[in-house]
Specification:
The radius of gyration is 21 Å and the shape is globular. It has two domains: 10-115 and 305-346, ornithine cyclodeaminase, domain 1 (2-Layer Sandwich); 125-302, 3-Layer(aba) Sandwich (Rossmann fold), CATH 3.40.50. It has helices at residues 15-25, 27-43, 114-132, 149-160, 172-181, 195-198, 244-249, 257-263, 278-282, 304-318, 339-347, and strands at residues 10-13, 54-57, 62-69, 73-81, 95-101, 107-112, 139-143, 164-168, 188-191, 204-207, 214-218, 228-231, 240-242, 251-254, 276-277, 296-299, 325-327. A hairpin with a 4-residue loop joins strand 2 and strand 3 (62-69). The termini are close together. The chain is an alpha/beta fold and 348 residues long. The strands form three sheets. Strands 9-8-7-10-12-16-14-15 form an eight-stranded parallel β-sheet. The structure holds nicotinamide-adenine-dinucleotide. Nicotinamide-adenine-dinucleotide is lined by residues 81, 86, 92-93, 117, 121, 143-149, 169-171, 174, 208-211, 215, 217, 232-233, 235, 300-302.
Length: 348
């Protein structure tokens, strides 16, 4: 009997193995590493094949595919966004992703990306805050204390030196959960009962709520001079978090304008509303923060290159570890033209 060829096995990182990998590296180290990988890819921005993500909307949520390539590797992420899921005991955001070799087209990694999305989103936020937040920022308001919130907080600690986080969620149980999870993080954690209380003394305002509507998590009068806003939750048409007045007072920084104009806070603004692309700030081609009075706003929606960076990082880090299994997901007969023969031989 001929054994079917298994020469094209694909490493697969399960949720369990991703969690083991995070623990073995240490979450703060991993957030710093991921921020570096994202920063490296933002510096190579121009060579990437870029397209806004392909979104399939329904009344309850969205399912998206996020592809990109640097010419050597190709990556995509499958991700959903279903704000109503939490009330049904399910995650708002789940994801998995794949990295492939451009030369052969063969996959080289399949991985869970629900954990990895939370990590890469947080790492990107903190990498951006490093460029835009006021120097010496040590206090952040964290509005929306759901699945992403601890990751966002820890990344700001690991990368920007955050010392205090001020939590607010419309659901006090979410704030309790977040405070509990951060109790041993080496941060001062303050539970707040209104968004106004949460922003007191904070130089960084993070909004990370989930609601399928044009919400007003921050009103215009809540945003004082000099702050940095890290707006994470508005990432889909009809789903925003900030009052439009804030956008006219702030300098707005974005990932990929064609995607952000449809999905980000700036969907509220005219099509020619001025924004700065982050990769240009990182390369020193455009100014980031200019002075202490300026309001900077990262209108984050999450772009495919950040997932590509995260996939590259996982591919590099799992080598010589036990944190993956090999998947037989690609039929690869010894004689490439004899796919049918491979099927026939497998019967005997
Ligand atoms: P989640 O459902 O786990 O948490 C959201 C929290 O927001 C909940 O605790 C909810 O009670 C709270 N909330 C809702 N409305 C609020 C309001 N008006 N005031 C205060 N709190 C409110 O969701 P998550 O996984 O933490 O994701 C949060 C948001 O971030 C989602 O909208 C998601 O789509 C978005 N997201 C963006 C990116 C990105 O790259 N920009 C990546 C991942 C997730």
């Amino acid at each position: 009997m001929t054994t079917p060829s298994h020469k094209a096995l694909v490493p697969f990182v399960s949720v369990d193995n991703m969690m083991r990998l995070v623990h073995s590296i240490g979450i703060e180290t991993m957030l710093r590493d991921l921020a570096e990988y994202v920063e490296v890819d933002f510096k190579r921005w121009e060579l990437f094949d870029k397209t806004p993500r392909v979104a399939s909307h329904s009344e309850v949520g969205v399912i998206e595919l996020m592809p990109t390539s640097d010419g050597e590797a190709y990556g995509f992420k499958y991700v959903n966004g279903h704000p109503k899921n939490t009330s049904e005991g399910l995650q708002t955001v789940t994801a998995f992703g794949l990295l492939a070799d451009v030369y052969t087209g063969y996959p080289v990694l399949l991985t869970e990306m629900t954990m990895l999305t939370a990590l890469r989103t947080a790492a990107t936020s903190a990498m951006v805050a490093k460029y835009l937040a006021p120097k010496g920022s040590d206090t952040m308001a964290m509005i929306g204390n759901g699945a992403q919130s601890e990751f966002q907080t820890l990344a700001m600690k690991a990368i920007c030196g955050l010392k205090t986080v001020r939590l607010f969620d419309k659901d006090p149980a979410a704030t309790e959960k977040c405070a509990r999870n951060l109790a041993a993080a080496g941060l001062k954690v303050v539970r707040c009962s209104t968004p106004e209380e949460a922003i007191e003394g904070a130089q960084i305002l993070t909004t990370c709520t989930a609601d399928k509507q044009n919400a007003t998590i921050l009103t215009d009068n809540m945003v004082g001079a000099g702050v940095h806003i890290n707006a994470i939750g508005g990432d889909c048409p009809g789903k925003t978090e900030l009052a439009a007045g804030i956008l006219t007072r702030a300098d707005v920084f974005v990932e990929f304008p064609p995607q952000t104009r449809v999905e980000g806070e700036i969907q509220q603004m005219p099509e020619d509303f001025a924004v700065t692309e982050l990769w240009q700030v990182i390369l020193g081609q455009k100014p980031g923060r200019r002075d202490d009075k300026q309001i900077t706003l990262f209108d984050s929606v999450g772009f495919a290159i950040e997932d590509f960076s995260a996939l590259r990082y996982i591919r590099d880090r799992i080598k010589d570890t036990e944190f993956f299994i090999d998947l037989d997901m690609l039929a690869d007969p010894d004689d490439p033209r004899d796919l049918f023969g491979m099927l026939q031989r497998s019967q005997s």
